[in-house]
Amino acid sequence: MAYTQLTETERYQISSLKEAGFSQLFIAESLKRSPSTISRELKRNQEVQTYCPEQAHLKVLVRRHFAKKAVKITPEVKRYVFQLKPKFSPEMAAKWPTIRSIIAVERHRIQNGTGTVDTPYYVSSLSPRHKLLGY
């Protein structure tokens, strides 16, 4: 079953049914929702013993706006992580794209004779781990 968030209309229905004294189970059955959905909605958005659908809807919009966006793990990302996994600690793996691009630029500069004054020093000062990997 696909997940759908409560609509503003459903929130008003929850409010009116709750004020009329109906149980959360009855409200859930009448809206064709899980009882836990109704329970969470009332728990999250209840203001001092009363449920206000306008406030609840505004809170939902704010939470949705500031929610972290899901990151899709593409096959390329999986392959990249799989290649990094045996070579580096998590800290090094996080920095690797930056390190790799710096090394590529410095190599290009050295090969073209346009390296900076301290380019040879930079390349020679790479950690033994980078030298071992050929970077």
From TrEMBL:
Residues in Transposase IS30-like HTH domain copies: 3-45
GO MF, one example: transposase activity
Name this protein carries in UniProt: Transposase IS30-like HTH domain-containing protein
Organism: Photorhabdus australis subsp. thailandensis
Top-level taxon of the source organism: Bacteria
InterPro entries reported in the protein's UniProt record: IS30-like_HTH, Transposase-Integrase
GO terms, biological process: transposition
GO cellular component terms attached to this protein's record: cytosol
Classification via PANTHER family: TRANSPOSASE, TRANSPOSASE INSI FOR INSERTION SEQUENCE ELEMENT IS30A-RELATED
